[in-house]
Each structure stands twice: as structure tokens, then as C-alpha cells.
């Protein structure tokens, strides 16, 4: 078996790394990690050797290099997961791929206003119409997925899929920045995702990190507010 190495950024901040790592962990493959701390001279020097895009994640499988999180997740699905990271049903697969494509190329307001930061708890950022529109759209997509596929299991498409990996960093953002979720299937989904063994493993490792990326430390701590924004009756 050729060596598999996933190059990732800081677990606390690197949302694209988390997506690829979750798929690889769920595939059951044995792999090594190389962590490059974001925003450091070490990152710049090493990533130039490892990734044509100079971003993380990047996957090395023997001599093969796969860069960009979505390409990596698709490669993992085909090569290490026997295509189990997408549903068998073509309609469900198309729905899931649409969710993932939208996440990969969109939700810019959410991504810039609420950087993934596991250490952010009860943080609040200014609300803008664009941010609220992204949040509402994601909640609506999650609700739609759970309505369609809830009978097949607790993940967005029933069984774990690349779609869950793609939205995992969003669930972390919603928790950290106090985004209220409607009680019921959406809140249940987020709770299931955050409690997942692989997510917990990543979160524990993130908590042990000491690096601080100032650009990703946004918002104001509001310790008096309830933590985190699950099951707000007001959002129902
Ligand atoms: N479209 C890329 C985005 C990757 C990306 O922006 N990664 C960030 C870390 S989460 C990065 O490497 N930033 C370092 C830099 O741009 O210098 C993907 O999906 O993998």
C-alpha cells in the first residue's frame, strides 16, 4: 500500500483541512498527517514544496498529489472508501453534490464574517443582510436534506457523506458565533455532527494547539449569553 499523507493547517482554524481530514478518517484508510501552522514562515516554505496551489489541504498518495479539498474528498471516496462517501441513489448523490458545490464556491459572507475557530465561544459578530442570507440558506438546505433523507440515518443524506464533511466547519461556526438554530431536525443534525467521534478527535487536537492567527480572531466575547446557539425557541 502506498503511503498516504494529508497535509493540513491548524486544526483550530483550517476549515478546508477539516473537510478532507473527516473524509479520510471516515474512509478507514491508514494515513499520516503533516501539520503546517498557517500564517508562519514555516508554512510558506514547506507548502511551496508540497502543493501546487500553496494551500492546505493537500493529499499525497505515493507519487500522486491531489490538491483542493473537494478534489481530495472525491479522490478519497473513489480510492479508499469504495464510493461509500456518496449515496448509491443518483438523485441523492446529485442533491449532495449540489450542496457541496454551493459550499465550496459560495457562502462568502459567512466565510469571511465567521472564520472557523473552535476556541470561539459565545462570540458575536456584526449582523449584515448578506450574512443573514447565507445563514438562512444553509439552515434551509439542511432542513430540506433532513426532510428527504432523515429516514435513512442521522446525517444530511442519511449515511455520512462528503456533504457532512463540507458543512462540519459551518456547524462549528454556528456554535461559536451563537447562530440560533430551529429546534428539531436541524438542531438534532448539528448535535449529532458535533458529537461524532472523528469530530471530537479533531476538536480535542484543536484545543491543544497554541497558535493564534489574529486575522481569524474576530468578534466580541459575550460570556453572559447562552452557549451555543442551538434550539432557540425564537428561531422556530
Ligand atoms: N479552495 C481551496 C481553499 C484552500 C485554502 O484556502 N486553504 C487555506 C487554509 S484553510 C490556506 O491554505 N491558506 C493559506 C494561504 O492561502 O496562504 C480548497 O478547497 O482546498
Summarize the structure.
This protein has 236 residues and is of the alpha+beta class.
Number of helices: 9
The first-to-last residue Cα distance is: 50 Å
This entry's quaternary arrangement is single chain
What's the β-strand tally?
6
Tell me the domain tally: 2
What portion of the residues fall into strands of 2 or more residues?
5-15%
Question: Which descriptor suits the 3D outline?
Answer: globular
CATH class group of the largest domain: Mainly Alpha
Class from helix and strand fractions: alpha+beta
Mean pLDDT: 94
Q: What Rg is obtained from the alpha carbons, in whole angstroms?
A: 17 Å
Key features of this structure:
Glutathione S-transferase Yfyf (Class Pi), Chain A, domain 2, four-stranded mixed β-sheet, disordered C terminus, two-stranded antiparallel ribbon, Glutaredoxin, globular, 6 strands, binds glutathione, single chain, alpha+beta, 236 residues
Structure description:
This protein is an alpha+beta fold. It has 2 domains: 4-79, 3-Layer(aba) Sandwich (Glutaredoxin); 90-235, Glutathione S-transferase Yfyf (Class Pi), Chain A, domain 2, CATH 1.20.1050.10. Helix content is 48%, strand content 9%. It has 9 helices and 6 strands, in the order E-H-E-H-E-E-H-H-H-E-H-H-H-H-E. The chain has helices spanning 15-27, 41-50, 69-79, 90-105, 108-113, 129-149, 162-176, 185-195, 197-207, and strands spanning 4-8, 32-35, 58-61, 64-67, 123-124, 220-221. Strands 2-1-3-4 form a 4-stranded mixed sheet, covered by helices on one side. Helix 1 runs parallel beside helix 3 (69-79) and helix 1 (15-27) packs across helix 7. The longest helix has 21 residues, at 129-149. The relative contact order is 0.16. The model is unreliable at 228-236 (pLDDT under 50). Bound molecules: glutathione (GSH). Glutathione binds at residues 9, 14-17, 38, 55-57, 68-70.
Amino acid at each position: 500500500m502506498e503511503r498516504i499523507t494529508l497535509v493540513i493547517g491548524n486544526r483550530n482554524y483550517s476549515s478546508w483541512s477539516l473537510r478532507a481530514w473527516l473524509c479520510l478518517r471516515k474512509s478507514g484508510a491508514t494515513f499520516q498527517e503533516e501539520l503546517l501552522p498557517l500564517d508562519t514562515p514555516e508554512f510558506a516554505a514547506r507548502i511551496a514544496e508540497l502543493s501546487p496551489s500553496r494551500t492546505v489541504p493537500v493529499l499525497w498518495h505515493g507519487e500522486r498529489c491531489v490538491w483542493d479539498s473537494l478534489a481530495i474528498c472525491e479522490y478519497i471516496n473513489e480510492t479508499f472508501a469504495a464510493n461509500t462517501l456518496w449515496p448509491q441513489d443518483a438523485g441523492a448523490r446529485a442533491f449532495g453534490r449540489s450542496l457541496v458545490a454551493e459550499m465550496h464556491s459560495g457562502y462568502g459572507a459567512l466565510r469571511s464574517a465567521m472564520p472557523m475557530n473552535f476556541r470561539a465561544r459565545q462570540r458575536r459578530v456584526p449582523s449584515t443582510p448578506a450574512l443573514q442570507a447565507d445563514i438562512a440558506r444553509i439552515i434551509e438546505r439542511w432542513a430540506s436534506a433532513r426532510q428527504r433523507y432523515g429516514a435513512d440515518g442521522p446525517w444530511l443524506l442519511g449515511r455520512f457523506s462528503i456533504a457532512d464533511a463540507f458543512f462540519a466547519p459551518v456547524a462549528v461556526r454556528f456554535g461559536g458565533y451563537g447562530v440560533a438554530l430551529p429546534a428539531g431536525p436541524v438542531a438534532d443534525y448539528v448535535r449529532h455532527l458535533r458529537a461524532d467521534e472523528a469530530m471530537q478527535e479533531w476538536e480535542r487536537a484543536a484545543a491543544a494547539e497554541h497558535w493564534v492567527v489574529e486575522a481569524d480572531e474576530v468578534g466580541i466575547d459575550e460570556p453572559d449569553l447562552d452557549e451555543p446557539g442551538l434550539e432557540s425557541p425564537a428561531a422556530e
